[in-house]
Amino acid sequence: MEIRSELRTELDNFTSSRNALIDILTREFRSGTSARALANSVTPAFSRDQVVQYLGAVALHDSARNALKRAGLNAAADTRVTGIDAPREARLNIAVDPAETPDYADLPGQIRAALRDSHLTLALTRDFPTDEDTQITDDFIDEVLLDGEPVRIVKATPAT
Description:
The chain is α+β, with helices and mostly antiparallel strands. It has helices at residues 5-30, 35-41, 48-70, 107-116, 138-146; strands at 77-81, 90-94, 120-123, 151-155. It has a four-stranded antiparallel beta sheet. Strand 1 (77-81) and strand 2 form a beta hairpin.
């Protein structure tokens, strides 16, 4: 069954307006407006937790992007935010061709070192399939990254 043109038009308008709202929300956050104030102002459209989690991912993304740029790795890794819908994660993946990059195997270590200065690290994405006996170590995450899969950017936890 085909959707009527009126419905399609309204759906397109809604989607466009939703995307514009998310873009403005992100811009306002990057300009210094607090996540809490933004969450309170857009509650008719999105839940408070949804906005706060999304803006947390934006903050992680921006910090990681700046750290990679300072380390000269901005061309070697791409960062992105999955969006305001779940899972609301900041993700990173390697963006260079292994055949054209002599130190390709060293990239995860270089990326980790750059992120460490900003108190960030890497973790598996929430939807990454693992077996029950899989040991989630930095080496395992590095292998996932080298295989071309995206990984999450997360705050580093201090050693106890």
